[in-house]
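Regression test case RT-17, inverse folding.

Input:
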């Protein structure tokens, strides 16, 4: 069943998240405003509400594994996996995993990067949710979805804390599969 692009309608949570997110201008380079989620993570009640809200659209979807994308996707993905009674799989930058792994490369504005998972992390037919903190252009998430498919998994959807919609990430991933709590 396709999931629509969703933004949270709980105005209290939206207000609390907006108040706790920190904008860091010119990071990691001039002209970019980094959305820092660490103040959200430092507040245990708010962090718990975020995990509940990010996992809610996927309850009843029979998710068997949650893939968290390095590095803040690990922080959000692991508790979301527990909330969904699912396993957790880290999607790492190349060269970081100790066991046999497979990599999916993707293009950046200048050069390329990649994500990798252990070759036995996802079994054929498992239902996978991909989690990360921010959806920007969608390149990393798209590469992660391709890797899930190569390993035999069935992509249920994507869950993000926030989306920078002006960068067209939801369009790249297929709007019907993307959920997000906040959109900018």
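Golden output:
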């Amino acid at each position: 069943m396709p999931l629509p692009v969703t933004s949270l309608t709980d105005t209290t949570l939206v207000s609390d998240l907006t108040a706790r997110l920190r904008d860091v201008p010119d990071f990691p380079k001039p002209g970019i405003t980094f959305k820092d989620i660490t103040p959200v993570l430092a507040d245990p009640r708010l962090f718990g509400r975020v995990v509940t809200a990010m996992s809610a659209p996927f309850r009843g979807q029979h998710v068997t594994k949650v893939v968290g994308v390095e590095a803040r996707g690990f922080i959000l993905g692991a508790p979301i996996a527990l909330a969904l009674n699912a396993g957790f799989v880290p999607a790492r930058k190349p060269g970081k995993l100790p066991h046999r792994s497979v990599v999916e490369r993707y293009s950046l504005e200048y050069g390329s990067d990649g994500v990798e998972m252990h070759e036995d992390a996802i079994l054929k037919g498992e239902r996978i949710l991909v989690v990360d903190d921010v959806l920007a252009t969608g390149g990393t998430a798209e590469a992660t979805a391709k890797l899930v498919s190569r390993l035999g998994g069935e992509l249920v959807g994507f869950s993000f804390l926030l989306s920078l919609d002006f960068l067209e990430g939801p369009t790249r991933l297929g709007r019907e599969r993307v959920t997000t709590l906040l959109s900018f």
